[in-house]
Amino acid sequence: MLKDIRNLLNGSMYGMTLVIPGVSATILAIILGFYDGLIHTMNHFREDVRKSARYMAAFLFGVAVGTVLFSRLITFLIDSFSLPTMLFFVGLLAGIVPLTYAYAKGAEKRIAPREIALAAIAMVGLYFLSTGFTGPEIVPADSAGTVNISVILVLFVAGIVNGATLVIPGLSGAFILLVMGLYPVIISTVSDIGTFLADPRNLELFFEICLVLAPFGIGALIGVLFMARLMEKLLRDYHKQVYAVIMGLVIASIVTLFQNPIVYQSGTSAPSIIAGAALCIAGFAIAFFLGKKAK
């Protein structure tokens, strides 16, 4: 019973971080010490089906609870205080860089040229993806009228990519959604789940939720299962190279985050800038401290 409660709490904290752009849920999993167990359970589920099913049931229920409850708070903060909120996320991203750098250089005192090249390639790749890709425009309040076959396909592909990020340390699935232009509709739809649970007779809202989350969720499941196996092998055989790529992605995320209109939607007044700067420093301190614990 205690293990189930712990798995549920771990899942809840993991779910909370899933809706925060720039915050890696897997970094939290590493810090809290359940990342290896989670990956092992997913990759070796059949070795002990009963034990694995119990572990995943408690964990996934916690993820669902944390995601649904926290999505409402994040939606409010971004709508009302987008600049300070996003600058806090920028600080969190910046605070992750020293951890990824330490993993990329390994036991050596300096990072090797090969790892530098991999980080640079990842930085350039994500930057051009963020500037050259325009996601479909889906109005969160009117999903049923804006979701068509092409949008469903994009949601499915976005789900695969997002699912893959759930097991890649240092990479934020919410940020990838932000880059693809899908973050507002996904976070709004997840938030609507709480509204539907309060009034289950609202079948129209249920239909809108399913239109968005069904293709996204199926894609995410495929991404998780595929990437879990791949990451287990890559982290075992190419540990430094993997973290060099992650470092490049994190640095590029900081740059591209400032180019997204969502950052400035609530205005850029002097108090917002001052509050944002303070929160950015706080975010860096938090991520840096947690990163030192993860080493």
Could you explain the architecture of this structure?
The chain is mainly α. The protein has 13 helices and no strands. Helix 4 (49-80) crosses helix 10 (183-198), helix 8 (149-165) runs antiparallel to helix 9 and helix 10 (183-198) packs across helix 11 (203-237). The longest helix has 35 residues, at 203-237. The chain is globular and about 60 Å long. The protein starts with a helix and ends with a helix. The model is unreliable at 139-145 (pLDDT under 50).
What's this entry about, in short?
With 295 residues, this protein is mostly helical. It has helices at residues 2-18, 25-32, 35-43, 49-80, 82-105, 113-132, 143-146, 149-165, 173-180, 183-198, 203-237, 239-257, 270-294.
SSE map:
Blueprint: H1 2-18, H2 25-32, H3 35-43, H4 49-80, H5 82-105, H6 113-132, H7 143-146, H8 149-165, H9 173-180, H10 183-198, H11 203-237, H12 239-257, H13 270-294
Helix pairs in contact: 1-2, 1-4, 2-13, 3-11, 4-5, 4-10, 5-12, 5-13, 6-12, 8-9, 8-11, 10-11
Name the descriptors:
single chain, 295 residues, mainly alpha, 13 helices, globular
What is the residue-mean pLDDT, rounded to a whole number? 82
Structural class by SSE content: mainly alpha
**Total count of helical runs of at least 4 residues:** 13
Strand content: under 5%
Helix content, binned percent: over 70%
What is the rounded distance between the termini?
30 Å
What kind of sheet is the major sheet?
none
Radius of gyration: 19 Å
Number of strands: 0
Tell me, briefly, the overall form.
globular
How do the SSEs run, as a string of H and E? HHHHHHHHHHHHH
Low-pLDDT segments, ≥5 res: 139-145
